[in-house]
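Field log, afternoon session.

UNIT: design team B
ACTIVITY: writing a sequence onto a fixed backbone
BACKBONE:
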């Protein structure tokens, strides 16, 4: 049988197979002719058809004759780098665990607070009434502090006036006893002003807490209505 007597389909198969073998041989030849590329410690770029043994654990590339990068091998990590990676991994795991615990505690606290709201109040007016009573107590303390500050400032002004009339205006140095009285009333004014500032901050926090509680109470009641409507 000669070539011309072969079926056309078999001839095409032979042609395709031969082409594939040729391409594979070409690719193997190209890969075999490739070069190694690496960077020395002094920064110099090196090329060679063989890789030095000292570079095998460092970063290098295999380059095709046309300049394409065929493969890249990264440098092996040092023991110190591996230790740092393990430490960082453990730190991240611990951080995620703590975050999950905090979120779980926050959910539990919110559920507890929701239960307290629903058990303590039967309607929104009771929340507003509780807010007014709590703020009234704080306001009474604030008013008392205002009066105390005013009293101490009056005493301080009197002592400063005495010191001015008896000593300063006459070019004399204020004696220790008088200076101590001024310092005493000054300190009392400052201390009570600090207490007043803290009380004002407390009042705002309490007011905001009741605002939040009222909003949350409405949400919880709405959920209860929806569940009741759904027959749950």
């Amino acid at each position: 049988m000669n070539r011309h007597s072969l079926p056309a389909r078999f001839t095409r198969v032979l042609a395709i197979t031969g082409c594939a073998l040729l391409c594979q041989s070409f690719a193997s030849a190209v890969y075999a002719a490739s070069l190694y590329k690496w960077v020395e410690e002094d920064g110099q770029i090196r090329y060679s058809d063989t890789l030095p043994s000292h570079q095998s654990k460092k970063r290098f590339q295999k380059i095709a004759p046309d300049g394409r990068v065929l493969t890249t091998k990264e440098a092996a990590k040092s023991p110190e780098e591996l230790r740092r990676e393990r430490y960082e991994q453990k730190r991240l795991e611990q951080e995620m665990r703590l975050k999950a615990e905090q979120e779980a505690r926050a959910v539990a606290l919110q559920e507890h607070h929701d239960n307290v709201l629903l058990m303590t109040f039967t309607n929104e007016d009771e929340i507003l009434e509780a807010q007014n009573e709590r703020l009234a107590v704080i306001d009474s303390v604030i008013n008392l502090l205002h009066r105390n500050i005013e009293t101490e400032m009056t005493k301080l002004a009197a002592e400063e006036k005495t010191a001015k009339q008896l000593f300063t205006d006459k070019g004399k140095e204020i004696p220790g006893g008088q200076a101590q009285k001024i310092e005493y009333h000054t300190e009392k004014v400052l201390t009570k002003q600090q207490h007043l500032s803290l009380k004002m901050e407390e009042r705002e926090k309490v007011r905001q807490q009741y605002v939040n509680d009222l909003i949350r109470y409405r949400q919880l009641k709405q959920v209860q209505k929806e569940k009741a409507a759904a027959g749950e």
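LOG NOTE: Confidence is low (pLDDT under 50) at residues 1-6, 25-31.
NEXT ACTIVITY: expression trials, pending approval
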